[in-house]
Known about the structure:
By secondary structure, the protein is an alpha/beta fold. The protein folds into 2 domains: about 5-160, Rossmann fold (3-Layer(aba) Sandwich), CATH 3.40.50.970; about 175-299, 3-Layer(aba) Sandwich (Rossmann fold).
Amino acid sequence: MVTDMRTQLARTATDLLERDPKVAVVLAEISVDRFERAIAMAPDRVINVGIMEQTLLGVAAGFAMEGFHTIVHTMAPFLVERPFEQVKLDFGYQGLAGTLASVGAPYDYGTEGGTHHSPGDVGVVLTVPRTDVLVPGCAGELDRLLRETYADGRLTYLRASVAQNDVALEVARGRLEVVRRGSRATVVVVGPVLSRTLAACEGLDVSVLYTASVAPFDSRGLAAVAGPDPLVIAVEPFYEGTLLPSLAEALRHVPSRFATVGVPRRFITTYGTAEEHDRELGMDVAGIRRRLVAALELG
């Protein structure tokens, strides 16, 4: 049975809590059932503040000030948008480290409506200086990235989702992986949309690069593959264009053309499953292929 990212997050965090006495977990009601063993094992280091997201970040920052490796968890819109001032000031401004681990973005809980949508979460977090953003493509990658970064002294946004790729890759913070090579364009894929993008690229003469690390971004890796006069297309599981500044910075030394395939920058006013929203917003295989072909024709 394939493990979902939300379950893996709880398992990995619980294991770290057991192994490392400096790990603390702060929850806001979400996923509490998945942390039952952790709560029983270390009730002084696993705190459920209830549905109070600003308090969630404040308590987590308090743990961090006392030297704990804090893992903070709730749904994306309630972790980085509703309490953004606390993310910016309690963690960012004070230079505190911690892991902000979300679920639900961009619209995994789309049946609940706009309050549970968060396609802008990554863009919001990127406004906080010196913050890393990791978007794993499956449970195995989430486990690897959380273990690699939880105690690295940095503020990290770790974004879990319902969608998963078919296989896990050897991801690392700040690294791109070359999945396939072609000559017409370089497609940079982020996180859990790799499998559908590869299906969409069938028969297209393009290179495909994969990353679970939005920030830091592997500028050298992209420049090495893209070549001297590149067309670069980003496929991103959040608002389209979010990755564009990193792509432009990586290729600032050569004339470059860019296109983006992501969640359209508009409010989602319909209710439905994540799969239904993917179809409506052009983020399923057919929609991604249609948008890739259009970019190639214009490029």
